[in-house]
Amino acid sequence: MILVTGATGTVGREVLRLLAGRGVPLRAVTRDPARLSSVKTDVEVVGADFEAPETLRDAVAGVEGVFLLTAPGAWVPEHDLAMINAARVGGVRKVVKLSAVGGRSSTDDGGTMPAHWHAPGEQALAGSGLAWTALRPSSFASNALRWADAIQAGQPVPNMTGTGTQGVVDPRDVAEVAVEALLGAEHDGMALTLTGPDLVSVPDQVALLSEVLARPISTVEIPLEAARMQMLASGLDPSVVDVAVRGSQLVRDGGNAVVTNDVHRVLGRPARPFRTWALDHRGAFLDTEETARAAR
Ligand SMILES: NC(=O)c1ccc[n+]([C@@H]2O[C@H](COP(=O)([O-])OP(=O)(O)OC[C@H]3O[C@@H](n4cnc5c(N)ncnc54)[C@H](OP(=O)(O)O)[C@@H]3O)[C@@H](O)[C@H]2O)c1
């Protein structure tokens, strides 16, 4: 039995789908089981919350492997440690943790990257006696969905990172690597840095979307302090806003220009480029008229 946490999220949902396809007995965690009412009936859905340790104890009963995904924010260390502790006490054999690029070695950027939220969990796993794999993905291609409203409205895409590039990764590749790490022993005790095959900037991504949608799309530079005010006004947690702003500055300065071969090494095929993600998700960027035309 494998327990998938974050099962309603971008990567967790895909991990659940892939494991189900391999015939693995599954239990899926969400705080609101109604959100998983449409998943296959042979997946056991449990209501559990990283904030409520007793629910985690019940969730790991009889489980051999855990896919550990905690939602981004300053609470990541506390949530990771709660789940790792429940896994250890509950007799789980292996935990595959979704972390973030930068990892534990990233100590020189003043706590500006999501990797700093994940470092305590990675350290706890390494000292837990459990088998473990840490997955450190770069920025997800699916973050581009945040631009869908602007693109549908014919407005420019807001750009906080200038011409800074990142090894933008397809979350489907992250999920496939997670499944390999959960089902095999080859990647135990390893931290894998998961990136796409090449470095792309926001203007590069927008140019690719423009090509895929066959329509011009522009970008507009957003000063980081203006972005901070906008994000705070929209109700985002200040810890998330702070990391978004400082992380954007780091990317802008070339500090996250990292590409690795880890996806290829684990999956035996190249990582999907951003263009593939854009082609497969082009429907999300079409306005209603275009969607109706595409359906005819
Ligand atoms: N986005 C990126 O570019 C990127 C890059 C590298 C690493 N990461 C890492 O990827 C992870 C996922 O981030 P994401 O933005 O893609 O989010 P997501 O997985 O799409 O959504 C967060 C998930 O966490 C669950 N969750 C939230 N609070 C919970 C709680 N208290 N107890 C149990 N489950 C809870 C939610 O489930 P319910 O609401 O159903 O309970 C949801 O499934 C983060 O750790 C992030 O640091 C993201």
TrEMBL record:
Stretches assigned to the NAD(P)-binding domain: 6-182
Superkingdom in the source lineage: Bacteria
Pfam families: NAD_binding_10
InterPro entries (alphabetical): Ergot_Alk_Oxidoreductase, NAD(P)-bd_dom, NAD(P)-bd_dom_sf
Protein's name in the database: Nucleotide-diphosphate-sugar epimerase
Lineage of origin: Bacteria, Bacillati, Actinomycetota, Actinomycetes, Streptosporangiales
